[in-house]
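Submission sheet (multi-component)
Chains listed below:
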Amino acid sequence: MGNYILKRIMSIIPVFLLATLLTTGMVHLSSVDPAEAYLTAAHIQPTDEILAQKRHEFGLDQPFFIQYANSIMKICQLDFGISYVSNKPVWDEVIYRIPATIQLAIASILIAVFVSVPLGFLAGVKKGSAIDHFSRLLSFFGASIPSFWLGYILVFFFSVKLNLFPVEGIGTWQHLVLPSITLALPLIAMYTRLLRASVLENLQQPYVLFARTRGLKEKTIMTKHVLRIAISPMITGLGMNLGKLLTGTIIVESVFSWPGFGRYFIEAIFNRDIPVIQCYVLIAASLFILSNLIVDIVQIYIDPRISRKEGQHR
Amino acid sequence: MRILLTIENDYQHQVGGDTVMSKGKISLKIKLTFIFILILSTLLVGCSNANNEESTSKGNHDNMLTIAWPRDVGEMNPHVYNPSQLFAQSMVYEPLVSYQAGGKIKPNLAKSWEISEDGKVYTFHLREGVKFSDGTDFNAEIVKKNFDTILNNKELHSWLGFITKIAQTEVVDKNTFKLTLTEPYYPTIQELAVVRPVRFLGEAGFPKDGDTSKGIVKPVGTGPWILEKYKADEYAIYKRNENYWGEIPKVEKIKVKVIPDAETRVLAFEKGDLDMIYGEGVVSLDTFKQLKSTGKYETRVSEPIATRQLVMNTKTEQLSDERVRQALHYGFNKEALVKGVTSGLEEKADHILPTNLPYTKDVDVKLVKYNVEKAKALLDKAGWKLPKGKTVREKDGKLLEIDLMYDSAESIQKAMAETLQSEWAAIGVKLNIEGVELPDQVQRFKDNKFDINFYSNFGAPYDPHTFLNIVSSKGYGFNEAISAYPNKDELIKQMAKVPQTTDEKERQQLYSSILKSIQDQGAIIPISYMKKTAIYQKNVTNFNFPANRDENPFTGISIKQ
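Outcome: structure written.
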């Protein structure tokens, strides 16, 4: 297993290289000169001298592959350059904003898990019941509604009309409720369906019949056997979504004025703040890989059959 | 709290009482129920908390004005640009002179000034007894120190004409400061009223090496407001400066909440979390209309701040002909367009610069009134004929096809472009509209890769001289765009002369003839006067829009208790 994890960690390297290549290349593909973008962002009228000076400062007057090598060297030291807009190191700016985004992401994962596990499980076990229909309705709703719209609807009812939660901002846990529900609903929709399908599939498995013939209580079979195995695809889905969750926060953070990383990224795109965009893309790529790795490990822990298979291969 | 205790007791009771069931089963079932109840109860407790917080915070709202702003206010350094926000900088830092309605320049930190005969030496008599917010004196020494750090980064500020022309800064005595220029430049006084970079930071704010372009130690200014609390990306709170030399603000505090999303700003306002939404484009037109129609709030629209223009590239074959340009101007109903698209938030414009700017009042331009027949006749005369059975005019087998570029993020530009497309189709012109991102729009304008583009001037206190500078200098797009003007060289020579004039009459004459000539030849079509908007709760009074486009409106404002 150690070997396997090591292999997975090593696989981050080519992805990382590719991501840097893309982000460095992006600068060249864009029709706008970064030096000019910088000056526009700073509201400075660009003259030829300032442009030349800025291009030199950003290393844009060097050949592409030297720029690429330089950026890799720097990123290895967590130096993502200086933000064009704020003139501060990008990494400092990102680190300042990441905790808020993580807080939001964790809250929405918790909500998603606490709602979709019981709901998906019951919908599977009691197929065709009212709870199954309800879960289907919720899933359709959650999967199809755009999150910014959902955000506005929630704010309108729960803040403006009912005055239960603040409209926007960060601070108390009340501030966390609406944005994390907004972010969690699409996840709930997906996980509920995933778990339901998986439960139904597992109910057909011979081990269930075997357990019944052994005279085990139905409840024991369901909770100790079926749920434990059926939850596996949901965990894969969860892992794949950690990265998506990060990008999902972009919209939700803007709607709820949540001072996180996603909102910072939006502003960076608008200002063509290229170092920040590069940093975001790299972090998002790393997160995708990392979350998949974590999921693999968790899955081995939950379903011992996987590690046994690994053992057989060895 | 009581709910939680009961649950815990319940939990112990159940665990203690039921020994027959296997341990694993109990814990799973009970754990789930427990967590569920826990979440539910905390939710309920939380709701009552939210209400409590709301009611207590309302109490604190006494005499504090809360507004929303789309972006963080920035580091409050008077000598830098983005991401620092102009209105916030103007709350803490002050200029030597201030720009007032109609372009009048009034004393501010300088109580008076003299300009030498040759227009090169400016002597400022500073107001006495002015203190920075940390109690130190405002005097000629600190004025010079600020000027010198700004001049150390001349290239950063070269867009502001007078900065590049400063030869010397000099302390004459404690309260007299002298500025010597390399050549006469009349807009100096007007440019001293801009929000950045020529405003004054107290000694304690300067970093050790004296270079403020890399950051300041703390925001120490002479202005009516002092930054009290700041949380990046969340909010900034300003308290009034009780020792302010001028009129002390009526509200005690201003809270600026950072809310990037326009709809969220409106929701927060409707809930009562905000007292005011103010600025340019901070709410959509529809929202403004809707909030106005409820009658529950005060809505205000400012005087014109800039002119929304169409700029034609006369280097293109079709638009090099003045008759085609005029035909396009005659060929759309401007009044209906502006009214329809902006619902009256903007006003039909007859001049390429708003007439509340200095020297722009009496420009005698040829007024163009909507006249489809005249437009058609002009196109016919220019050789663009409409073949039978076709809808687009042709000349030598070429279609009369023109591209219009607009900022895709700007709904007004988009709607106007669409309207023009259908209006001009009626006179046989095929208009292709293309939405691009703002940086691309700026770039293509500079590179002259456009037929027609949207533009708007800077407004007060930058214009009219900055507009002339942009039109006459190469590289901004205008200079090249008016290439087909037969008198282009003469115009550019005149424009270069304007800032150097020392005689008021001559200056006015030059402005009048230049602006008339540019407009009458039709490469720049004025569309509408853009305006600022403000929406505020009924208990907010004495709100006035500042004459300087970038200034804050907070000094006179008050809240009825």
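Remark: The CA atoms of residues 244 and 405 of chain B lie 48 Å apart.
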